[in-house]
Fold this sequence. Notes:
- By secondary structure, the chain is of the alpha+beta class.
- The protein has a single domain, classed as START domain (Alpha-D-Glucose-1,6-Bisphosphate, Chain A, domain 4, 2-Layer Sandwich).
- 35% of the residues lie in helices and 37% in strands.
- It has helices at 5-13, 15-21, 104-137; strands spanning 28-34, 41-47, 53-64, 68-73, 79-88, 91-100.
- The chain has a 6-stranded antiparallel β-sheet with strand order 1-2-3-4-5-6, with helices on one face.
- A hairpin with a 2-residue loop joins strand 5 and strand 6.
- The mean pLDDT is 93.
- Residues 115-142 form a coiled coil.
Amino acid sequence: MEAPRDLAFEAWTKPEHLSKWWGPQGFTSTFQKFELQPGGTWEFVMHSPDGVDFPNTNVFDEIVQPERIVFRHTVFPHFVAKATFEEINGQTKLTYRTVFEETEAVFEKVKTYAAPGAEQTLDRLEELLAQLVNRTSGHSQQ
Length: 142
């Protein structure tokens, strides 16, 4: 990611940034609770472009600024997610992994939307980071 590690980590940990990019293309999110601490809860509703709401609850297991975030998605589909942030020459290498706890048969169905959804979500993160980098470096057009 063409952004400093601190900024990339901030995009994951500040609700005003996270709400702008979390979810596939066309989705929006309404955050109800965001307790960024081990054992803290992140509750939100993802709203699809066709009007379907998807309630989500995550529990943070680990927050190590600016290195990693680990959380459990406690509603279907159940998974543990880990995001790691590595600084390389002023930019950020983000590694995002999820381990699903569903049966193999259920996972076969889930991955048809989970993998493309995760890719679109991370694309949205890159777009937001480009805007934030522009804003902080004074390159925005006014």
